[in-house]
Amino acid sequence: EFFRGLYLSDGSRYINRVKGRDYPSYQFVNKSADIIRLFTDTCDQLKLHWTSKVRSVSAGGMYDIFISRRADVAFLDQHIGPKS
To answer: Which residues contact 5 (CB under 8 A, 6 or more apart)?
Structure first.
């Protein structure tokens, strides 16, 4: 439920196109390092593999967290699903 709340507030599910193939992925974006830590700690507890990217200060200093492994995306699709 905690993960779902974070995802519904600042997350998205999107289709990543790589070499002409579509791969669903989840993304979470926030400026707060504390909120990002809560999100990634929850991912760790759920055993979800995540990667991160920090945008430059000129781009707003946002943190991006990506969940893209097929098994992890399938797990989230089953338990979270797209936003309505």
So the answer is: none
State whether the Cα torsion 61-65-68-74 is positive or negative. Answer: negative
Give me the amino acid identity at 62: M
Closest CA to 26 of 43, 38, 41: 43
Residues 44-65 have pLDDT tens digits of 999 999 999 887 666 567 889 9
* Cβ contact 1:45 at 8 Å: no
Give the DSSP H or E segment for 12.
strand 11-18
Q: Are strands 63-67 and 51-54 parallel, antiparallel or unpaired?
A: antiparallel
